[in-house]
Amino acid sequence: NGVALGSGANLRGSGAVNARVSGESGSVIEASGALAMGDAASPAGFNYSGELRTKQFAVTLRSSAAVGLGNLTTLGSGASPGTLTATNGLVVDFAEAITGFGTISSTNTLAKRAVVNGVAQGNSATQPLTFTGYVAGVGTFNHVNFNGTLDLGLSPAIATVGSITFGPTNTLRMALGGMIVASGNLGLGGDLNVTLIDGFNPVAGSTFDLFDWNTRSGTFASINLPALDGSAWNTSQLYTTGVLSVVAPGFQSADFDEDGDVDGDDLTRWRNGYGTGSTHMQGNADADGDVDGNDFLVWQRQLGSLPPAVAANAPVPEPGTSLLFILAAAVFQRLGCRKCQITVDE
Fold it and tell me: Phi and psi (nearest 5°) for 208?
């Protein structure tokens, strides 16, 4: 009938326990080498309430359903990382924690997700916890890297974290209305997928604060947004204030480098991308489907401003005379004009 550890009981060793394993709070399991435990044919193959220490070794937990971890799970030993594998997923419940340095390996599918409603705390930025699979829940995370999928919250929720990093293979799934607040560094990467809930269709003028951070690094490789009925998305402030907004139909942003303002750097981006079919979502100099003179006119209208969030034709001060000469010369040079006349009428 398997192994059951009472409060105060200890199990230390390496090898395999090919049976159901359970334990009360106050019991301890510690690996002294590679260790495998549980019954892969039972939904309660590993269901534990005590403390599990992988040390610097690889520990595999077997169950036909998600394994239940105890009040404290610790990976690694000093600067040596440990590994915890749970192919069918795991649960770190409320008032429970997983800490240390190493890799939590699980399957990157919703059905076999790792649910973290408690605390996931790495040792430091250089000794983090790394999740490779699908992670969901309403827990708190600090010094954690995600390389699979992060789907925070049981519904749109505010997730408070410390320093976390989304790796290039990660997919961050966020329901509109949810938010990640990072007191440390928020390292962006991989894909961002935003979804709507219950048929909600935001209208022009709506703003959604997706991210707050102390410091930020990196950007998403791709941003996938749901289709809107009669309006459009504006991502120009995503990497400066963490805000995603909805704008009127036909809105064109000249914030080509997506840093939250329209300045000379955007002109440089337009000039370097002139004649290409690249898109603005990829951070290139395009406001209307291709990089051409129309994009320059959009840039000129918005120069010196934050791209308007609602009105596509909001008035913006025109550049001064001397700047117009410089800009026009740059445009003509890029367009290959050999004989061009510049007329400025003040």
Answer: -135, 120
Question: Which residues on adjacent β-strands are paired with residue 175?
Answer: 195
The length of the chain in residues reads: 346
Question: How many CB atoms are closer than 10 A to CB 177?
Answer: 17
CA 320, 325, 331, 337 torsion: positive or negative? positive
Reduced to 3 states (helix: H, G, I; strand: E, B; else coil), residue 119 is strand
For the chain, helix, strand, coil in percent to 5 are 10, 40, 50
Determine the Cα–Cα distance for residues 3 and 10; give it in Å rounded to an integer: 12
DSSP 8-34: T-EEEEEEEE-S-EEE-TT-EEEEEEE
Interatomic CA distance for residues 179 and 221, integer angstroms = 19
Q: Could you tell me if 270 and 256 are in contact, meaning their C-beta atoms sit under 8 angstroms apart?
A: yes
Q: pLDDT digit string (tens) for 52-70?
A: 999 999 999 999 999 999 9
The CA distance from 302 to 24, in Å, is 64
Q: Tell me: the pLDDT tens digits for 166-218?
A: 999 999 999 888 899 999 999 999 999 998 887 778 888 888 999 999 999 99
Query: Are the C-beta atoms of 92 and 100 separated by less than 8 Å?
Result: no
Query: Residue 312 corresponds to which tokens in the numbers above?
Result: 């596509």
Q: Identify the bridge partners of residue 212 per DSSP, sorted by sequence position.
A: 181
Residue 124, judged by CB atoms within 10 A of its CB (0-12, 13-18, 19+), counts as exposed
Q: Are the C-beta atoms of residues 217 and 198 closer than 8 Å to each other?
A: no
* Assigned token pair, 281: 């979502």
The model carries a pTM of 0.76
The owner of tokens 């995503």 is 238
